[in-house]
Write a structure and sequence with these properties.
mainly alpha; 14 helices; MetI-like fold; 2 domains; globular
Length: about 350
């Protein structure tokens, strides 16, 4: 297990190194450049030249890259010019990161809690009304764009019915205590139940909008995996031995069907970071997605690079966790991985 983990961590480091190179050279190829972004719209050519000299932008690109890599390893990504002016870009990331993680957790809980049980039930009733209805519903869920669903949910439940708040993370008038940056958790830790409930209400619509596509995908993968496992010899053998049906379903069917589901959950969790850009924009939700959109629009390169690298690191870390979970679910995988 240790060798398997070390191997996966090594792959993670290589992926992040390659990504840092791609990000660095891409940012240097954007029209306008870093110096113009820092200087502003009314900057003179002389001032731009001074900034380029101070930042070392006239050095060869390979020299600039290793200087950039050194600053990244030191946690220095520069200072935000537009998102939160004057704030270190890393601090902007750390301020916005809990919001996006909280939203992603809400979306995945919505997707997992509904997707796995419904997929399992559809597989058990293959060809029935419930199964066919589920397949149609998931096709619709995958086909509907995230931003359209977000606007639709916002219009119905926030604007028309007024049941849920239309934007933000929490009512600022509550003056809730901040500890971790996760508003729901902070409310529970401080026993400020009104603050926790208000944060949950703000989280509800964005989580549904963001979690609909993962829900549809998890449903379909669970259904297919359970149908495949139900026909395996070891399931028929367990039935022939007279094992109780709940035991067969739990130990032999559901557990063996979990491997592709775990893969799907990991990949969909990483993909939520991309969907968060649209969802957070629609609901004015102050997370990484909104910061990424604003930094790209206003050419705030320090924030842009730290958000992209941070999001990529999160995605790769999620995949590492998924790989390690394989080894827990199916020990044959860690044995094979260690043998390579």
């Amino acid at each position: 297990m240790l060798r398997y983990t070390i191997r996966r961590v090594g792959q993670l480091i290589v992926v992040l190194f390659i990504l840092s190179m791609l990000l660095f050279f891409w940012l240097r190829s954007i029209p306008g450049g870093l110096a113009s972004s820092i200087c502003g719209e009314r900057c003179t050519p002389q001032k731009i030249a001074e900034i380029r000299t101070v930042l070392g932008l006239d050095d060869p690109l390979i020299v600039q890259y290793f200087k950039f890599l050194g600053r990244v390893l030191d946690g220095n990504f520069g200072v935000s010019a537009k998102v939160i002016p004057g704030t270190p870009a890393l601090d902007v990331f750390l301020q916005r990161f809990p919001a996006t993680i909280e939203l992603a957790i809400g979306a995945m809980l919505f997707a997992i809690v509904l997707g796995i049980p419904l997929g399992y039930l559809a597989a058990r009733r293959k060809g029935g009304i419930f199964d066919n209805a589920g397949i149609v519903a998931t096709l619709v869920g995958i086909a509907v764009p995230v931003f359209f669903l977000a606007y639709l949910l916002k219009f119905i439940f926030a604007v028309k019915l007024g049941w849920l708040p239309p934007s933000g993370r929490q009512d600022p008038q509550l003056r809730a205590t901040r500890i971790t940056g996760f508003f729901v958790l902070d409310g529970l830790m401080t026993r400020e139940w009104d603050a926790a409930w208000d944060a949950l209400k703000h989280l509800f619509l964005p989580s549904i909008a963001l979690g609909t596509i993962p829900l549809a995908v998890i449903f379909r993968i669970t259904r297919s995996a359970v149908i495949d496992v139900q026909g395996e010899d070891y399931v028929r053998t367990a039935e022939a031995k007279g094992l109780a049906t709940p035991v067969i379903r739990r130990r032999h069917i559901l557990r063996n069907a979990l491997l592709p589901v775990v893969t799907t959950v990991g990949l969909q969790t990483g993909n939520l970071l991309a969907g968060a850009v649209l969802t957070e924009t629609v609901f004015a939700y102050p997370g990484l997605g909104a910061a990424l959109a604003q930094s790209f629009r206003e050419k705030d390169y320090p924030v842009l690079q730290v958000v992209i690298l941070g999001a990529a690191a999160t995605y790769v870390l999620i995949n590492l966790i998924v790989d390690l979970s394989y080894a827990v679910i199916d020990p044959r995988i860690r044995t094979t991985g260690a043998a390579r």
